[in-house]
Amino acid sequence: MTEILYYDHPIVTECSAEVISCAQKDGGFLIVLSRSPIFPEGGGQLADGGSIFTGEKCAKILDCQTVGGVQVHFTDAPFEVGERVCVRLDLEKRLDHAEQHTGEHILSGLASKLFSAKNVGFHMAEDYCTIDLDLPFEREQLEMLELEANKAVRANFKIHTEITDGEDAAGRTLRKRAEKAVGEVRIVYIDHGKVDSCTCCGTHLDATGMVGSIRITDAQHYKGGTRLFFACGGRAARLNVEEHAALTELARRYSTSRGELPNAIKKQMEEIASLKAELKAKSRLIAEGHAKRLMDTAQERGGARVIFEAFEELGANDIKLICDELAKRAEEEGLNFTALLFAVSEDGTEYRMACSRGAGLNMKELCTAVNAALMGKGGGSPVFAQGKSERRLDEGTAEALKKYLLSAMGS
Asked: Which long-range contacts (CB under 8 A, 24 or more apart) does 61-67 make?
């Protein structure tokens, strides 16, 4: 059995140990030690990092898990059974995990005390942390929770743990308890339970002030409750720097202050919406003009007007609008038509095709033929289809497709 040091001696960052066993697996090595300061993954917290070394070699600890009650270190190099080694903790990684886990306790404890919300899930990753609460939260409640959490941080409340058994733990007033725990039960208290009290196997800081700050970075509705994304300590500090830099750059681009940035963005969005509406109206007028010209000058085949046109000054949305206008005019005037339109650019070719229901040609089948000619991709329905190709439509291919369309429409 490994003597664990991360509870009774949390400040120990290095120790000597004996290699009890070493086995190769999945390109790495599973090592059991006589003692270790490395915390194994558990309680929602990631495993510590670190290294095992002697004077001659060093192995990186890639992971640490408890398997069948035994603490196993997964490393990138082996050691001999019985060999004396040094085990060194990655202190920066431990501090990061402890900051996040302590912050989680503060948020969960206050969410319970302020809003009677239960923590039903906690996940820590290397770049984000989440808490799942069983109640939906409004923006104002999230703001209050974040402010109260940081007030608890500034108050620098004491954090302490007590070791007891399941029977004793069952009789205590706790926010959350491990109902199936057997043997020793570890309870974490923040400010003697005024902020939080729950059973937990993770590593924590000695006082709330060591967390530094707590940021709720996002909130999503999840299974009838709320999933909070948060960052604490060093992660929160880095996030503050990144967001401050981003806001400063945006404010400069908008020639305003960071505080006035939301109003500047809102104003720009309103201007863009107005310009889009104006552009849409003008695009519709242009499409109407092209549709009238194309319909009036179209060749007749099989009782339908056949339209074939390639545009270099229009885009995919424009030729779609022309197809819509052609269909609208055909319906109003009782005409049959088939249209194959191209928008040609440096990036390739977009194509749209449309017909009236009595035109006698399936647009889905026509699209298949165009795909083959241009090595493109697309599809659609019997009356409308679309596609695109990275190839530019050249004169030879255009002429061949036009002949194909006229032939398919009959005499």
From this structure: 61/90, 62/28, 64/36, 64/38, 64/39, 64/40, 65/40, 65/41, 66/40, 66/41, 66/42
Q: In what order do the strands lie in the sheet with 129-133?
A: 119-124, 129-133, 225-232, 214-222
Q: Name the class of domain 3-89.
A: mainly beta
Q: What is the rounded CA–CA span in Å between residue 63 and residue 84?
A: 20
* Contact in structure between 378 and 351 (CB atoms under 8 Å): yes
Residues 6+ apart with CB under 8 A from 68: none
Which of helix, strand or coil describes residue 117?
A: coil
How does 284-294 read in b/e, with b if 16+ C-beta sit within 10 Å? eeebbebbeeb
For residue range 116-131, what is the model confidence (pLDDT) as tens digits? 999 999 999 999 999 9
Distance set, CA 159 to CA 40, 187, 205, 327 (Å): 21, 11, 7, 73
How many Cβ atoms are within 10 Å of 259's Cβ, its own excluded? 9
Q: How many angstroms separate the CA atoms of 220 and 184, rounded? A: 36
In this structure, are strands 35-36 and 3-4 parallel, antiparallel, or unpaired? parallel
Domain positions in the chain are 3-89, 95-240, 284-409
3-class SS shares of the chain: helix, strand, coil, % to 5: 40, 35, 30
Average pLDDT over residues 174-202: 87
| pLDDT-derived band at 182, boundaries 50, 70, 90 | low
**Structure-block tokens of residue 157:** 């409340």
Among 391, 366, 397, which Cα is nearest to 376's?
391
- The CATH architecture that domain 284-409 belongs to is Roll (3.10)
Which residue carries 């880095």 as its tokens?
238
Task: With CA atoms as reference, report the closest residue to 129 among 13, 211, 37, 9.
Answer: 211
Please say if the pLDDT value at position 44 is more than 90: no
Whole-number pLDDT of residue 411: 57
CATH superfamily assigned to domain 95-240 = Threonyl-trna Synthetase; Chain A, domain 2 (3.30.980.10)
How far is CA 205 from each of CA 147, 200, 208, rounded to the nearest angstrom?
A: 20, 13, 7
